[in-house]
């Protein structure tokens, strides 16, 4: 015991402890061995009792959380997947571009191959019992792939469906009634006698013979619950004409022949270096068809999006006429360009009114893409501003309130300095300066919840108009007839005081109306008030 520099008593105690540890270890190993033998005996008994040689797969659950691995090699949207019968291969749909293609990965060798560039929407996978064939099932196409050759063949079929529309609508009515009753976020259905209410509306069913009216009936019924995120919708498949756009805004005071250009939209078809068109020019013809005072030009724009189109242009300033070939854009693309134009105009106004001291971000939606956009602007081009105006107007919702709460709750605790120059404030991944939030009547869902959280946590002031209490989360359910959809608000948001945000109107700190006669001149009164109040707050500090 001198060797260990211990007293004799401590040395004896140590030896006893080592003996006990050795006994405990031997006991644990024996128990583990007995447990393993018992498992093997159970397997043998099962195998003996079984009529075939199939053995059950025993999954070792201990430490399973440490055996998580990434299967696919790259991040992408998945549109369906299935494992081969032997578990060796994974087939999956992934979208790296605009649509989904079929990929295969050998899970043992980890090699990945593109099987078929399907260029499709998401599909469901099914397999036959032997695993010889894999079926790819979509709303508009059915395909069969041989699991060995991986060859793809279309599946054609002919079938007749006999349908009793009245009986189907009655079934769907009962389905809506039951689903709302079982899943509505508030058990007392907002105080509505649901049985009595559905009975009162059922009497209209025999008089309805189309889905337009049936969806309206559902909307009226669900509206009795006095809740957001519900109603019936009829969405027939669209096969009509689609009106394209030239990416131009027109002068509606012009009464002559053709269309007089008032503005060329940035990044539109004519916004290119080799185009000679300017504001004031006249669009005289499209693909040789003259636009006169009696012409409905929208009919000429039907179904030409993405197609080479000949546009004849006249410039009254120099009396020149010429042709240009462009690719018109869809109305959806045009709307995106107009939205970007609107955001740039708001940002320019904030910069002008604040003398360059404030930045501006708009939350288009409460989703990942919008968050990434404002995050990049906040910590990029606006990082040196004194404050930021956060615009949430006309936002339809999503789920972003927690992210916004964290992003705008920064309190500076350090500054990185290099040779006397302030380089970066910390926290460096949050906004550490004053902010103000703009809202309006069109805010919905999480665009109600986000300003509520912002105000509740005293992150800043709210400017604009009251927002209706619409903070619930919804399941939109596609019915047996897929052209019909209805909503079930399944999640409510309750405050610490026990009050739900649903039906609780959110009032701004500064109530400002954007008057129609003013807004058309380009003056955004709500935004100007936000700039004024934020500058007052900053200067007061």
Explain this structure.
There is one protein chain. The chain is an alpha+beta fold and 541 residues long. It contains eleven helices and 24 strands. The protein has five domains: 1-67, no CATH class; 69-154, Thrombin, subunit H, CATH 2.40.10; 165-234, 2-Layer Sandwich (Transcription Regulator spoIIAA), CATH 3.30.750.44; 248-329, PDZ domain (Pdz3 Domain, Roll); 354-469 and 505-540, 2-enoyl-CoA Hydratase, Chain A, domain 1 (Alpha-Beta Complex). Strands 10, 11, 12, 13, 14 and 15 form a six-stranded antiparallel β-sheet that branches. A five-stranded parallel β-sheet has the order 16-17-20-21-24, with helices on both faces. A four-stranded antiparallel β-sheet has the order 1-2-3-4, with no helix packed on it. The relative contact order is 0.07.
Rg value: 33 Å
Helix content: 25-40%
From the spread of the alpha carbons, the general shape counts as globular
Q: What's the structural domain tally?
A: 5
Number of strands: 24
Class by SSE composition: alpha+beta
Kindly report the average pLDDT value. Answer: 92
CATH homolog superfamily of the largest domain? 2-enoyl-CoA Hydratase, Chain A, domain 1
The N- to C-terminal Cα distance equals: 71 Å
CATH class of the largest domain: Alpha Beta
CATH architectural designation of the largest domain: Alpha-Beta Complex
Query: What is CATH's topology name of the largest domain?
Result: 2-enoyl-CoA Hydratase, Chain A, domain 1
